[in-house]
From TrEMBL:
It comes from the Bacteria. GO terms for molecular function: cyclic-di-GMP binding. This is Diguanylate cyclase. The keyword Ribonucleoprotein does not apply.
Length: 275
């Protein structure tokens, strides 16, 4: 498994949306995908700005469609959410990511994306607990990435869910920060360990006079004051990397450090590095 196949799934890239007909067909195919091993995870390195060591990997879902080739998650996750299939798919992702990460060097974390629909399911903490128990992965090595949209239905259930997940000992990250319904109130209430600064801020930040760097700087100082890590997402160039470091982001993720790779390749690299 090489690369994340970005070039390969151009046909169904996130810039296009499947029309209604396509969507119905994809919906049907997605039901078969789980059963037929057509889904797999790739892992993108997250690197410490301080040590420049890989501290973990984010699990990213891929669908190898039997006829259409690789389909991007931006296309099929929304379909999975609409049809309710996200529950089974999400379970599979967590179990697989925990199982894979349990093979890696013990200091390496794994981050898993959680759909707001999974998050709203009262059974979700049991799913996480079972995945940890089965894989024997230490809870502190699992990081759940949650987007701000979970706060749309802000109520006692949301608070309780955060508390239950935290009690399992897993880490929590606020994904795509700054793109959605950002309210500083969330940061006060929810026990996040990390804020992931969306790549729309990173893109172009290194261009002189660009305002994104001021925004990144503000997010970093806010996160620091709250005792949270920050990951800048989508750093592609060395200029962006340099700037992100200067602005004090604790972690960086992006093509500048590598595209997602298969679980076996992560293991292989770790074995090679260790000898
Ligand atoms: P995300 O969670 O924000 O994931 C980061 C996305 O940015 C990934 O796209 C990754 O491949 C891409 N990326 C990383 N570095 C760079 C870079 O330097 N430049 C550019 N241009 N892109 C970069 P991907 O894998 O296509 O995933 C898209 C989205 O699909 C994810 O955004 C996430 O919201 C969702 N997703 C992926 N896997 C899962 C999953 O297992 N469960 C759920 N619920 N959602 C998932
Ligand atoms: Ca993510
Ligand atoms: Ca993100
Ligand atoms: Ca995203």
């Amino acid at each position: 498994a090489k690369g994340d196949g970005r070039g390969v799934y151009r046909f169904y890239s996130s810039d296009m949306h499947a029309d209604a007909e396509d969507r119905r067909q994809l919906e049907e195919d997605l039901r078969d995908a789980l059963a037929s091993d057509a889904l797999h995870l790739v892992y993108q390195p997250v690197v410490s700005s301080v040590t420049e060591q890989i501290t973990g990997y984010e699990a990213l879902l891929r669908w190898q469609h039997p006829r259409r080739g690789m389909i991007a998650p931006d296309i099929f996750i929304p379909i999975a959410e609409d049809t309710g299939l996200i529950a089974q798919i999400g379970d599979w992702v967590i179990r697989t990511a925990c199982r894979d990460a349990a093979q890696w060097v013990e200091t390496t974390r794994v981050a898993v994306n959680v759909s707001p629909i999974q998050f709203a399911n009262p059974g979700f903490p049991s799913t996480v607990m079972n995945a940890l128990a089965t894989s024997q992965l230490a809870p502190g090595r699992l990081e759940l990435e949650i987007t701000e949209s979970v706060f749309l239905s802000d109520n006692a259930d949301t608070d309780a869910m955060f508390a239950r997940l935290k009690a399992l000992g897993v880490r929590l990250a606020l994904d795509d920060f700054g793109t959605g319904y950002s309210s500083l109130g969330y940061l006060k209430k929810a026990p996040f360990d990390k804020i992931k600064i969306d790549q729309s801020f990173v893109r172009g930040a290194a261009i002189k006079g660009n305002r994104n760097s001021a925004i990144i700087k503000a997010i970093v100082s806010l996160a620091e004051a709250l005792g949270m890590d920050t990951t800048a997402e989508g750093a592609e160039t060395h200029d962006e990397l340099e700037l992100i470091r200067q602005l004090g982001c604790s972690h960086v993720q992006g093509y500048v450090y590598g595209r997602p790779i298969g679980a076996a390749e992560v293991l292989e690299r770790q074995l090679n590095a260790g000898t």
